[in-house]
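Reopening this ticket.

The earlier resolution said the output was attached, but the attachment link was broken on my side. Pasting everything inline this time so it's all in one place.
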Amino acid sequence: MLITCPHCGARDRAEFTYGGDASVPRPELSDLDQERWADYVYLRTNPRGTLREFWHHVAGCRIWFIAERDTVSHKISATQALDDDGSAER
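Inline output:
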């Protein structure tokens, strides 16, 4: 399986690490509500279809980016670099 890094281009999947669901909004770092953080870390719906996910190019340029992956076929249809604040570049 090949994944296209926004910086390096297509590379083997072994160079990457999955970083989680990118569609779930993270609580503010100043938010101390443990239940809200537990929901963010552990509760997922596991949907079928296209999902936006965080990926890390660990064995390459080491950037984090967003990939749109079909959870049934595992086909990645798009990748997008992140800004310094963690949002997707436009």
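Reporter confirms the inline version is readable. The longest helix spans residues 34-42. The chain has a mean pLDDT of 92.
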